[in-house]
Amino acid sequence: MTSSFVSATGVDEALSALAGGARPVAGGTDLVVGARQGKTPLPESLVAIHGLDELRGASASDRSLRLGALVTHAEIAAHPVVCERLTALADASSIVGSHATRAQGTLGGNLMNASPAMEVGGPLIVFGADVTLRSGAGERQVAVADLATGPGTTVAEPAELLTEVEIPLPPEGTGSAYVRLEYRRQMEIAVVGATAAVTIAGGRVAWAGVAITALAPTIKLVPDAEEALIGSDGGAAAVGEAARATAAAAEPISDVRASADYRRAMAEVVARRVVSAAVARARGETVAVPASSTLFAGGAS
Amino acid sequence: MSVAESEPPTFLRPDGKEKVTGAGRYTADLNLTGQLHAKLRYADHTHARIISIDAGRARAMPGVLAVVTHEDVPDVLYGDLAQDRRLFAKDRVRFEGDVIAAVAALTREIATEAAAAIEVEYEPLPAVSDIEAALADDAPLIHEDWESYEADEALGRDGNVLGYSTIVKGDADTAVDTADVVVKGRYVTEASQGAPIEPRALLAQWEGDRVTVWSSTQVPYAARAGVAHVLQIPQSHVRIVVPLLGGGFGSKCDFHYEGHVAALARAAGRPVKLVFSREEEFIAPDHRREGMVIELETGARKDGTLVARRGRLVLDGGAYCGEGGFFAQMAAMHACGPYVIENVNVGSTLVYTNNQPSGSIRAPTAPQVCWAVEQHMDELAEALELDPVELRRRTLIAEGDEGPTRQVFGPIAVRETLERAVEMIAPDGDLPEDEAIGVASGWWPSFGNQSGAYVKLNADGSGTIVTGAQENGSGAVMALPVLVADVLGMKPSDFSILYQDTDAAPFDAGSSGSQTTMNNGRAVVAAAGEVRDRLLDLAAEKLEVAREDLELADGQVRVVGSPSKAVDIAELAGSGEQLLGKGSGPVPESPPCDAEGCLGRLGMESFLEPQVFTHAARVKVDRETGVVRVLQVAAAHDSGVIVNRLGATGQVYGGVVMGIGQALLEVSQLDAEGRQRNPHLLDYKLVTASDAPRIDVAWIETPAQNGGPKGTKGVGEPPTVPTPGAIANAIARAIGERIRELPMTPERVWAAGQRG
């Protein structure tokens, strides 16, 4: 039960509270829901950071997009640079939880919750995004790919606050997508998910990134799938090979959502669909956001 | 012609605005001065002998004002058809939600800590979660003392068998050999949940030796009787008030926690409030729709004539009877369905297990059995090389036909519902190869019950309806002013409704069995009739005309044929005369049948004014993943005359969506000992508004002969019954494989596709 609650008025105040043992809360969509469900009790000491406007910004340059930790999923999904250049992130942000979750939940909180089923992790890893972790002692950059160490754990020290995410913009000719297997359209969590990005130059795949979600203790890249794509024409054969490589890289578990066997089989299906969508987008074809809704039986008819 | 048309098209329910704007107050919103917060201590095993309970440490904690166990209340058993449980576990726990103790403390946190500090020593016993295992000869007894319980003799109890019923007509065993085609099928359903969005909440306050309990219950009078019984006090000392109810779907039927909170408030000497967490709500007794094993065998002649149906059903009753004692017989009737079958032999067993007790979740037993029977009918059609719609057309009951207990039916429009549903869903051209359409038909009885109401006119000519009926959100109580206004020539909006207070209104069976319009509708019409009589007397005197020449219309009593000769009802109401009416109306009797050969007769062998229906579903199956999307449901219902079309159609929308959840996603997964693994809304997958398909609704209004006012029946439960069966038949048609497990999850559909 929480006995100390501070609403920080500046980042430094938040950092000193963290140094004193407090845990941060922004949207509360994981922290509060988890406590109500009896998973993890609320921390003894909380510092609310939702009022820190300096963590709320989104700014794009020629090279990258910087998103403050407090940017919400709904804001990310609506950002024009995300929609045009980082479409996989738009796919992911627009299907997190429910309307309420997307309006309330923040990017920083989502990343630090370190769920292997989180939607935005795959796209950020594939795009090579970094986070800034700040503490009273200074700050450091960590690749999103290196942030989570397992379900619910990260490399961040207790006194560090995730303040910003910087996402490099991929070159022209890149298409990307995030797709999850979903049982229902809202309030859903990925049973299996995958991200793909491909850059097509002169009709060949010049670069590719593939990551899997909810198929291992952390979201991870699949180098074998990327190799299968690079140098290919992005056609069915290469996509199929990448999909098989993705399934081979999966370390699925059995739980209340699905069996390991089903997850492994779905890894291939989801990978095939997500890579196909990324290739299509790279070629300038339209695949509506979010890709999940159109690539599964969810498709409106 | 329906009454609602007299005020088209916007009959607005009186509780609508406060609910939609958030201004409405639900039980959890109420607070009393000095109130304490309660926490229940649940069983730590699903089956164990209790060796000792030590609440000493909990009682000594600062901020704890009372701890109550079985020692603090009278040692009485309760239950509906079988009295098999105590308020607080005494010597045994039988499922994860059994209550050992209740704590009242200054805060919820202290109460939670204290509840955890109660020390209970157990001797664990082998838990029985599987229903077939519970029937084994050497199965551990869930209730060692079952023979000593008071129970309805007709249940046919025997060890872990809580109830056994048969439906027998003719000689099915011999007749099946004369059939041209025989099909057999085994279908298994897992448990699902009622899952209202409002978890239950209670607040109890004693004044002297009388207690008031505000409770989110669907059945306030059963709750009153329950509190009086377990505390051994007169019913007149117990008042149950229900603030706005945030949904029930049957999961808040029967008496449960009002007794615990009343006992706690008495012990603490202060008001006590209990608000359930989502997890507590999920494990509560009666919150569950039971799992079943359904084995069916049907023989037919080449023309489709159903020669014989044999069936064996096993139903998971869970740890206690609750109000689900009649389920075996109800399931057996649904295993026959609204079909003409020459010979029937269906046996249905309700068994005790160490699982959560099953309750009357919206049309209890019917969706699962209908899902099995309607797949079975499609399989039979395939074996007969008949179109599934054609087979139903030839075999569904029509007026004058005989049912499975030789009940002869009057006007019954189930075939018309079939034709309408099929017509509404007919596609413009060929369907894409991943889409298909399936149909399912079914029935659900009306229930005749005692019910009462008062109607009074106020001095300004407005009126108040005082009713014992309970509004569960369906709008049935909210539509009562339509009936009263019609009798009195007034507008529905002229009336306020006082409801959900057992001290104020006469008895009603509560919000269960789709019975509010049928039974309380008769009561308010009778009560309004008394007011009408008095108005006619007063007007006849005032206008100096014969009573017989008067009519009530447009807020006046006027002379038929010369409407200018009239007196305003408001004037009569303001004249100082008391305008009070009371009513209950005669309870319709069940129609005759011949159930001589049937065992376990609990009243379901005869279906009073059955509501009949057909749903047709169009689905799209993603074969690679097994994900099924329902694109359209066409729902045709005959629920008699419809009073409030907007409200009735809303019930179909909700029932269809609930049916889709039951069909595809909703399941309580259990561990080997009967504990739920997903008692929360992230992994217990309710269907969301975003998943809802296009829903087309048709009402076929055959006036009930022996039903509610104006030929009404019920509406609330039937819409959830045929949806899973229709979806199942559509999936089978799309992928060429049958899914014989419910729910038909993506993984199961995918696995079936792999077989094909």
Q: Would you summarize the structure shown here?
A:
The complex is a heterodimer of chains A (301) and B (756). Chain A is α+β, with helices and mostly antiparallel strands and 301 residues long.
Main attributes?
heterodimer, A: 301 residues, alpha+beta, 4-stranded antiparallel sheet, 14 strands, globular, B: 756 residues, 6-stranded mixed sheet, 25% helix, 25% strand, disordered N terminus
Measured between the Cα atoms of the first and last residue of chain B, the distance is 50 Å
Rg over CA atoms of chain A: 19 Å
Q: What is the subunit arrangement here?
A: heterodimer
End-to-end distance of chain A = 49 Å
Anisotropy-based shape of chain A: globular
Tell me the series of helices and strands of chain A, N- to C-terminal.
EHEHEEEHHHHHHEEHEEEEEEEHHHH
Largest interface: A-B, 26 and 35 residues
- The stretches of 5 or more residues of chain B where confidence is low (pLDDT under 50) are 1-9
User: Helical element count of chain B?
Assistant: 18
Major sheet characteristics of chain B:
7 strands, mixed
Class by alpha and beta content of chain A: alpha+beta
In percent, how helical is the residue content of chain A? 25-40%
Overall mean pLDDT of chain A stands at 94
Question: Would you write up a description of this structure?
Answer:
Chain A is an alpha+beta fold. Chain A has 13 helices and 14 strands. The radius of gyration of chain A is 19 Å and the shape is globular. In chain B, 25% of the residues lie in helices and 25% in strands. In chain B, the strands form 7 sheets. Chain B has a 7-stranded mixed β-sheet with strand order 3-5-1-13-10-11-12, with helices on both faces. A 6-stranded mixed β-sheet of chain B has the order 7-17-16-15-8-29. In chain B, helix 16 (645-664) links the parallel strand 27 and strand 28 (694-699).
